[in-house]
Amino acid sequence: MEAKRFKLIQQFNEDSEKCNSKVNDLFKDIAVFVNGYTVPSAEELRSLMIKHGGCYHNYYKSGSTTHIIASNLPDSKLKLIENHKIVKPDWITDSIKANKVLNYTDYLLFSNQTNKQSSLKSLFQPNTDCKNVTSCIKDATQEGFLSDFYNNSRLHHISIMGTIFKDYINDIRNNKNHCLTGREELLKNSYNKLNNFPLFLMNEKKIIMHIDMDCFFVSVGLRNNSELRGQPVAVTHSTGNNVRNRNGAIVKSEIMAYRKKYENVNKTAVTTDGDKIKKHWSTNMNGMDSFAEIASCSYEARKAGIKNGMFVGQALKLCPELKFIPYDFEAYKEVSYTLYNTVLRYTLDIEAVSCDELYADCTELLSNVSMDPMEFASILRAEIKEKTGCPCSVGFGGNRLLARLATKKAKPNGQFYLKDDDVVELMFSLPVSELPGVGGSTHFKLKSMGIKTCGDLQNTSLSTLQEQLGKKLGETLHKNSFGKDDKPLTYTHVRKSVSADINYGIRFQNETERDNFLKQLAEEVSSRLTSVKMKGRSVTLKLMVRSKDAPEETAKYLGHGVCDQVSKGITLPSATSDSNIIYREVLKIMKNLNINCKDLRGIGIQLSRLESDIKEDNKLLKFLAGNKAKPNADRNNKPSSSKMLHEEVIETYEDLSLSQIDQSFLNALPDDIQKEIVSNIKRTKSLDLNTKECRTDEQNCNIERKDDKTTLRENIDVLNDNNVSDEMKTYISPSELRLLMKQWIETEESPESRDVSMVTQYLYHLILADHLEELLIIIKSFYRYIIRNRNTDNWREAYMKIINHTQLRIGEKYNSKLFIENLFDVS
């Protein structure tokens, strides 16, 4: 949808540039969105905006659309457009006639109220039923909590926007019709240059560009709050220290718990940096301070010591005049798309990092257009600023590390090219904290080793670093200290996991509330998997559990407070996106962990080991028709005994005589299982086993009985992970298998032995994974399908064959058997 919106804006801009009948720029800086039926029509209004220098939006864009044009609006829509300028279409036509932009207040749609539609103001009056704000805030037990949380979570929006743009780059790179219009413009301008090949590239192997928008959230927010430019500004949900009355003892207790945990985690800091603990936020907070977090702050605020992620209460102590603006996620998306589409005009070699940051390999581009990096940066930055209204910084270097370091030197709102000749001098004095991958813990370790700069790192042996930091990290930091970075740019995004996490509003009074929420979260993860057409084999439950020293009530209302992290996973027998299966597994993990539900403060579900989601009809084809015999196959070709045993897979004890059974093994089985085995062998003895057909991918062949005595144990052991069908393991979940079995029975007159074997294998893996509940459901479903559709001897015999083998496997693992009521008498 975002791509579609941006494409429509681009189309409007192109139409505006091609317009030969443009009259003036009367509506410059005005962007309208037409809602519903109007006179003139929406298409006519679009044409008028083109002719008079305005902008027309097919979809409303928060922070960008200046006026909504409408002749009538239902009450339901009024609640979604608080404090917006909703004017009649006459405002546009009358302004054109007057040759000036008239005062829009004279054309407000709701200036004259009717009985049918109340004023906008009345719709947004505070709810008098709510005695205080916090009583109206939802927690995880209330309906609609998940959607509200994700709609307002900045971390959620940041994470999904990063993924959106990685996928967006994939799509554009696969679009053969994409044109590098910006590069074409540069080529036209380069014709007059004397040199067709840039001299700087003769000494440079690679030119990597790094772009980072400056104070992104703040910059976007200031477009509609220009009066705050030059002042200390922060983006947050809070409006200051106007918090509810809180129990001061609880706040103090939580702050002390935070400090104690910080000291325990960073014990090294106490000895290497005595002031580190003293400067921690917990030493400066009290009961009336806001615990809302700052997502982004302006450079003026940073000069006062404010940082991203800091609590509002702590920030106000450093800068009392700090101003706050709210989030505008739609505007962030709009600007992000503009950023990426601007760079995509010049090159496709882009690695998306986040909504406001990217890398690009400009080696081929700059060579092609005969341009110096700094010259190109000036053009690109000016274009981004003009289109978005937001500044950015650009850095160039021979690899991604140097490009990133160059961007740091360029900030704010600048550009810098770190040439190879300057790398040695820069890196020697660079603080190690500037290197990627050096967080608080690693920094403390390096400091305790007497390493403060990259020069110190260079003078430390690789073996010493690997001993203290680990082999991989030690090697990486040693290379980085010399300005070396072998990691290439990644243009293709491959998803490794899909997850959903909640760390706010988790308050359960009983297990029923907990389980209901787990089910909702499982459905959310399932929905995300479906949207990206993926399935996962590994399910992980991640929990935040209240620390034993932390108070039950948190300083931040419904926040998570001081917590311990708990994580446990399980591997499924097959990949799935089924919400019921996901819920079943995480519920099982939750119960095994035996954590008091009242202590839960955060819950996350993650699926990894992802596989592509194959369409169901393809799975049915793999399951039912993938190994059909060729009609003209040579039926006289007989394989060797070892090959026959492999192809036979699980032709179970029905194919054996009593003399071939390992008596000691048989005696170890329960009496009822022994009787079933003997009974089945006697029953099947009359069958002509020598003509039994074995379906393979290559041919139809007869099975020969081995001359030597084969024990039951040997036959069973043939079934192992190497023999299990890839189709069954990879593509079919237990719930899907039930559907396929139904279709199998409905479409086949008689079951193929190969298909029976595949089902038996699948059930065996459910036993290995302790999924007995799902096993029973499949067996019961199979029985019902046979009764309703194919109640014939062949199908009943196939059913009993599967049951007998399954019971044998159950006996192996549990020294017992399943209680199965639904059995056929096939004697």
UniProtKB/TrEMBL annotation:
InterPro entries: BRCT_dom (IPR001357), BRCT_dom_sf (IPR036420), DNA/RNA_pol_sf (IPR043502), DNA_pol_Y-fam_lit_finger_sf (IPR036775), DNA_pol_Y-fam_little_finger (IPR017961), HUWE1/Rev1_UBM (IPR025527), IMS_HHH_1 (IPR053848), REV1 (IPR012112). It is an enzyme of class 2 (transferase). Belongs to the DNA polymerase type-Y family. Residues 208-439 form the UmuC domain. It comes from the Eukaryota. Residues 22-109 form the BRCT domain. Its EC number is 2.7.7.-. The keyword DNA-binding applies. GO terms for molecular function: damaged DNA binding; deoxycytidyl transferase activity; DNA-directed DNA polymerase activity; metal ion binding. Keywords: DNA damage, DNA repair, DNA synthesis, DNA-binding, Magnesium, Metal-binding, Nucleotidyltransferase, Nucleus, Transferase. Its cofactor is Mg(2+). It is found in: Nucleus. GO terms for biological process: DNA repair; error-free translesion synthesis; error-prone translesion synthesis. CDD domains: BRCT_Rev1, PolY_Rev1. This is DNA repair protein REV1. It comes from Rhynocoris fuscipes. One of its GO terms (cellular component) is nucleus. Its main location: nucleus. Pfam families: BRCT_2, IMS, IMS_C, IMS_HHH_1, REV1_C, UBM. Deoxycytidyl transferase involved in DNA repair. Transfers a dCMP residue from dCTP to the 3'-end of a DNA primer in a template-dependent reaction. May assist in the first step in the bypass of abasic lesions by the insertion of a nucleotide opposite the lesion. Required for normal induction of mutations by physical and chemical agents.
